[in-house]
Specification:
alpha+beta, 4-stranded antiparallel sheet
């Protein structure tokens, strides 16, 4: 019984870390993966470097997106798209309600 009591704080620390750090990170990764897979032609997006544009085309072969900006078209990897900024750009009214 004493051995269990000595490991109880360690077990509680692991449980707290799981629910406050690991689980939310896994949820965010899943949401970002779904977002990247659901990008379609015509969506307005923002890259992680801050470049705003509109999706002109997607390339499944290269796993890339062609973005149309004011100065022309550019190709970016799908991983370079920012989920947070794009959701704010596409749904500005929902942010104001919250």
């Amino acid at each position: 019984m004493e051995q269990l009591q000595s490991f109880l704080p360690l077990i509680l620390i692991f449980v707290v870390l799981y629910f406050f750090m690991i689980r939310p990170q896994m949820k965010k990764q899943k949401q970002e993966k779904n977002f990247i897979n659901d990008i379609k032609k015509g969506d307005r997006i923002v890259t992680k470097s801050g470049l705003h544009g509109k999706v002109a085309d997607t390339s499944e072969k290269l796993d890339a997106i062609i973005i149309e900006t004011g100065s022309g078209k550019m190709t970016f990897d799908k991983s370079a798209i920012s989920l947070e900024l794009t959701s704010k750009l596409n749904n500005p009214k929902e942010d104001k309600k919250k």
